[in-house]
């Protein structure tokens, strides 16, 4: 029987060089949060988001050296486990750097985008969706455990929507969420930059060079923004 594990990481940043400094998870049995000393310094930009400072982790051990590591690795890599995260490719990359590779995952960001075919939602970050969907929960934003609590509620909303719209049971709904999560999202509208609000299919006709430049930036930057890389390659016919 599948076991759902909701998890989140807080990190030193969001590029390829960055690593985790906090991890939290919640399953049917318990909930856990751990703080660790990362291999690189936590920059002020990251601390401004999650409020974890270098002073707070000075006396901690690195995640891989902690007593928590083996337990979390065994739990996450269990063949029956399905890990759930918001923007899962990023969190999965962070724990992969630590030597943890779950076999199955669900990305609530991709599932949320799947339901928003007309892209009416302005943003898809977890806290924006929390307040947009009026998820009532006492949870601190950008704290790993607080985010996990919001994530669990968002997951339940999305699962219920699949069950109702597609007339399937809970097990098939979860399998559908896994299928959606395993494929990058195809985006249709710019939500940033000089073409904010414009359809990508229109921009490629008038300024193909911009899409070429943006794709190069995404690939050269860190290569972890799978949805935008997939989208740009799609519209550019690559």
From TrEMBL:
- Which keywords fit this entry according to its UniProt record? Exonuclease, Hydrolase, Nuclease
Q: Which residue range or ranges hold the Exonuclease domain?
A: 3-164
Query: What single Pfam family name could you report for this chain, choosing any that match?
Result: ExoX-like_C
Task: Tell me the GO molecular function terms.
Answer: 3'-5' exonuclease activity; nucleic acid binding
Q: Which domain of life is it from?
A: Bacteria
Enumerate the PANTHER family for this protein: DNA POLYMERASE III SUBUNIT EPSILON, PROTEIN NEN2
Designated name of the protein: Exonuclease domain-containing protein
Q: Which organism is it from?
A: Candidatus Nomurabacteria bacterium RIFCSPLOWO2_02_FULL_40_67
Q: What is the lineage of its organism?
A: Bacteria, Candidatus Nomuraibacteriota
